[in-house]
Every structure is written in C-alpha cells, then in structure tokens.
Specification:
This protein is mainly beta. The chain contains no helices and 20 strands. The strands form three sheets. Strands 1, 13, 14, 15, 16, 17, 18, 19 and 20 form a nine-stranded mixed beta sheet that branches. A seven-stranded antiparallel beta sheet has the order 2-3-4-11-6-9-12, with no helix packed on it.
C-alpha cells in the first residue's frame, strides 16, 4: 500500500529568525494524532539553520537521533565531552539513552541544510553514546547507499539501536533501483529534489511516500532525483 503525502502537507515552523524547519511528524507545537510516528520513526525534521546561529544546549533521553548534513556544517558539543564539526556528506548518530544534553551551532556565514531523524530505540536504559562518519553519500550515483543501520550485516555504516536502515540515493533520470522489502516491514521515502515513480505513484520534491505490505519496490527517476529511503519494522515487537 502506497500513501503519498505531498510537500504542502508538511508543517512549517520558523520560531526564530535563524531557523526554518519542516516537520514531517508531530513535533514541538505541531500535534496531529494521526501523524505521530511510522514504525519506530518518530521525528523527521527538514531544517535550514542560518549562519552564526543554532540550537543551544538542550536535553534528550530514550531516543536514537540521526543528523545528515546536506549543505554547510554544524558544530556539535555534548555532555559526554564530544566536540566535533559535522560537514556536508557526514552522518551523526547520538544515543540519548538515560540522558544527555547537546548543542548544534552553525559557526559559518552560510546556511546549513540538515535532516534530523529520531527513532524509538529497541531498548530503554542504554548508556548515552555518539558516532560520526564521513559517508560521502551526496556524490554517489544510481544506487541505494546505506548510511545508518541497526542491522549488523551492513558494514561501513553508522550503527544505531533500531532495527532500521537509512539509505540515500542519487538517481539519474530514467534510471531504476530495486529495493526488496517484506510485508512485515515499512518503507519511508522523502524526496529532496527531482521526481520518482514508485508503485504507480508519482512523487516530487519534498513529497513523502509511506509504504506498507510490499515485497519489492521498483523506484524510477522521472527527473534526476535525490532521496532518502528508510527501511523500518512494522511491528513494535521488532523495533
């Protein structure tokens, strides 16, 4: 089953002059009881952070937090003692677990474009931890590149405590990639740019596809496309 959610359905928040954020799920002051999560995917925010600004230190707990930097960079600091800069093409995972606090600041004069995703962890009470990797995913071509996964059969990816995998794809016009899934899995697709034809559905920039009860997805670019695909367990027992 294919559910197309158009870009216009995203909730736009601009609570301060340095932040423009599009919420794909209920978050902060946006609450829709019909749009709280999709499997263990609880938050997906498409954020643009202006230069010399950012998120001051704030707390988290019991969540796997993944940040993908699409343009620009962010400076990360946390109460575990980590200090790093996340740049274009890099991926960060933070296990909030029993509790931590962190800040994310754009110290440059250029905007930073990021996706931030939160997943419900597969167990509570985990010790807070952090991982960052340069995956260089923005320059790949015509393949689904795994970035973050809780499935240990995948190598050279950032690990997270969720039975889920995040892929990125840069797909040229008229090219197709095949993704094998199962009826017990969900698939989430969010298009950064270009357009896709999937399961008889055409989707364009910033559209979402939420897919359930399928076995094979044939994903064709009808215009040069960049998109994120997330493989998720459908049942809470398999999170």
């Amino acid at each position: 089953m294919f559910q197309l959610i158009p870009a216009s359905n995203r909730y736009h928040a601009a609570p301060v002059n340095w932040l423009s954020s599009y919420f794909l799920f209920s978050f902060a002051d946006y609450h829709d009881p019909q749009n709280v999560y999709f499997g263990p995917l609880r938050v997906f925010n498409d954020d643009t952070v202006q230069g010399n600004a950012g998120f001051p230190q704030h707390p988290h707990s019991e969540m796997e937090i993944v940040t993908l930097v699409l343009e620009g960079e962010l400076r990360h600091e946390d109460t575990m003692g980590n200090r790093s800069t996340i740049t274009r093409g890099e991926v960060q995972r933070m296990t909030a677990g029993t509790g931590l606090a962190h800040s994310e600041l754009n110290g440059t004069d250029r905007p930073a474009h990021i996706y931030q995703l939160w997943f419900l962890p597969n167990q509570k009470g985990l010790a807070p931890s952090y991982e960052q990797k340069d995956v260089d995913f923005l320059d790949t071509k015509n393949e689904l590149v795994p970035l973050v996964s809780g499935q240990k059969v995948l190598e050279d990816v950032v690990y997270m405590n969720s039975n889920s995998t995040i892929y990125w794809c840069n797909l040229r016009e008229e090219k197709t990639v095949t993704f094998k899934t199962f009826p017990i899995r969900n698939t989430f697709i969010y298009i950064k740019e270009g357009s896709l034809f999937v399961g008889g559905v055409e989707a364009g920039p910033n559209d979402q596809l939420r897919i359930t009860e399928e076995r094979v997805l044939e994903i064709q670019a009808t215009k040069d496309a960049q998109f994120i695909l997330i493989d998720l367990p459908a049942s809470e027992a398999n999170y």
